[in-house]
Write a structure and sequence with these properties.
single chain, mainly beta, Udp-n-acetylmuramoylalanyl-d-glutamate--2,6- Diaminopimelate Ligase, Chain: A, domain 1, UDP N-Acetylglucosamine Acyltransferase, domain 1, 2 domains, ten-stranded mixed β-sheet, 4 helices
Length: 327
């Protein structure tokens, strides 16, 4: 099953054709094995191609089930013997090109031409809605839901029961579970900020994931949640976000978290359960924040944070040390 049930996979491709289409030299003259999808290290299976670009993920690399992996000469020894190594200079750029071959519709995010006024759809009798509400194709909405004025539920959205969507909100490529409040002015499920700088034209990384918001959560006014690139962006159960929060692609936030206003998360960071973050804090990318962590307002977190820890400052450090140094 695809991580995004909404984007159509154009595969399978033989490995030699896939490499040729992406401009990667087939140095090992691989046999014509069929590749059904591109996945990350942890979810890839034997008929998938994956990628490994940082020693930070060596444990996942050693356990991957993929038979083909895009990597570098320096990292190839961490992969299992059965995994065929495709050696390149730029792992992420090569992976982006292959992902685009499988999912060509995932690169751009043009506005949805399929939308109709909700009064002209089957939802008009089951949803309470304001003025100028638009609904796209492949949308499902549960019982007892509200949608505010000037909101657009674009194609590929699932909304559960007892949900309230505020005014001036745009949602696409998102799965919203039950009993969820999304307040005014949110943008959820658009593509993330993923590209490779180039002097003439920046190369966009396809964003093939979705946003998943679990039961009993609330998303504050003016917040933005990007869909995942190679995995999904996930908000846990009973997690409350304040206003003007940005969550980048692939971020995973646990259950029962409380996050104050104007906090920003860079891509692919993971938060445990019962995490509390003060306003205007920043969380760098690819970090692991443990369970029961408290992060003071205005902090800059640039390293992993262990369970049951309180940190503050920039760079964020143990709260007792921060107070001692700033008396």
């Amino acid at each position: 099953m695809n991580i995004n049930p909404f984007f159509k996979n154009k595969g399978p491709y033989t490995i030699d054709k896939l490499l040729k289409l992406s401009g990667i030299e087939n140095k090992e003259n691989f046999q014509k094995s069929k590749i059904s999808d591109v996945r990350d290290l942890s979810t890839a299976t034997k008929d998938n191609i994956t990628f490994f670009n940082s020693k930070k993920y060596e444990e996942l690399a050693s356990k991957t089930r993929a038979f083909f992996c895009i990597t570098t000469e320096n990292l190839k020894t961490y992969l299992p013997n059965y995994c065929n190594k495709i050696i390149v200079n730029n792992v992420l750029l090569s992976t982006a090109k292959i992902t685009e071959i499988f999912y060509p519709d995932s690169v751009t995010d043009d506005f949805d031409l399929t939308v109709k006024d909700i009064s002209k759809t089957s939802f008009k009798k089951k949803v309470k809605f304001g003025k100028n509400v638009l609904i796209g194709k492949n949308v499902k909405i549960g019982k007892n839901c509200f949608i505010g004025h000037n909101s657009i539920i674009e194609k590929n959205v699932v909304i559960g029961n007892n949900c309230s969507i505020g005014s001036n909100t745009i949602i696409r490529n998102t799965i919203i579970k039950n009993n969820i409040n999304i307040l005014d002015g949110c943008v959820i499920g658009k593509k993330g900020f993923g590209f490779f700088p180039n002097k003439e034209k920046n190369y966009r990384y396809p964003q093939i994931g979705v946003v998943i918001i679990n039961d009993n959560s609330e998303i504050g006014c003016g917040s933005t949640i990007d869909r995942g690139s190679m995995s999904n962006t996930i908000i846990g159960k009973n997690t409350f976000l304040d206003n003007q929060i940005h969550i980048a692609h692939n971020v995973k936030i646990g259950d029962n978290c409380i996050i104050a206003g104007q906090v920003g998360f860079a891509g692919s960071s993971t938060l445990g359960n019962h995490v509390m973050i003060g306003g205007q804090a920043g969380i760098s990318g690819h970090l692991k924040i443990g369970n029961n962590v408290q992060i003071g307002g205005g902090s800059g977190v640039i390293k992993n944070v262990s369970d049951n820890t309180k940190v503050m400052g920039y760079p964020a450090k143990n709260l007792k040390n921060f107070i001692r140094e700033n008396k």
